[in-house]
Amino acid sequence: MRALHETLKQKAAGGLFASFGSSNTEKFWHNQGRFSWCCWVECALRGAFGRTLRTINLGISGDTSTDLAARYARDAEPLRPAAMLVTVGGNDFMRGNLETLERNLDEIAGRNRALGCVTIFNAYYAPMLDEIQQRRFAEFMAANERAAARNGALLVNRYPRFRAWWEAEPKAYAKLMLDGFHLNPFGHAVFGAEVIRGLELPPPQLPDDLHEPVAAALARLEVCAK
Fold it and tell me: What is the number of structural domains in the chain?
């Protein structure tokens, strides 16, 4: 993450960090008035690199990677972000295909590179899927790793850790979830803490009502991921 940290240090005054994705990125009422994981990440970034660092959420519910690529020129390019966290693939899994996802990740990374923008591909947590579907979903998440390698991009991949917890303790894991595919506010805090860790930033400053339960969840995640 050194490249990301150096870029944000250089551009902290007025630089922009963009979160680009679909419903689990989007800020909306489905998070019941609480922080989303992106909010936790934004606060961690501003805490680390200065409060003049700007952040923007470019999530739109229902988007596939094709939708992200199609609206890049409208939503992302004019902003010329210093760095972009790309979290996509769930809707591709449900109604797209792996080859298209791979192609679109390459396109987004290439367009970022032309802007001098650091790309960070971010894999999901684990949806509550049966064994066969979870294996297929893992293939879509692995596309992030391949795209990062092909494009010299950065990678945050917490999916294997969350999958291990889901498989080991499904009842405990379900407490993170709003439904089978989306996080509830507690799950957003847990996933946010994990993404922050993946970005090699100081841990989030959780409010009193979340501090102990999130710490306990992260401890169980660590145990199950070993």
Answer: 1
* Per-residue tokens: 163: 């999958």
Block means of pLDDT (10 residues each) for the chain, 226 residues, are: 82 89 90 90 94 95 97 98 97 95 98 97 97 97 98 96 97 96 96 97 93 97 95
**How many residues comprise the chain?**
226
Q: How far apart are alpha carbons 191 and 38 in whole angstroms? A: 9
Give me the CATH number covering residue 129: 3.40.50.1110
Instruction: Please report, to the nearest 10 degrees, the dihedral formed by the alpha carbons of residues 181, 182, 188, 192 taken in order.
Output: 50
- With residue 171 as reference, give the H or E element that holds it: helix 170-173
Q: Residue 136: is it exposed, middle or buried by C-beta count within 10 angstroms (0-12/13-18/19+)?
A: exposed
Which residues form the domain of 189? 2-225
Tally of CB atoms within 10 A around 173: 24
Q: What is the pLDDT of residues 89-133, one digit of tens each?
A: 999 999 989 999 999 999 999 999 999 999 999 999 999 999 999
Collapsed DSSP state (helix, strand, coil) of residue 58: strand
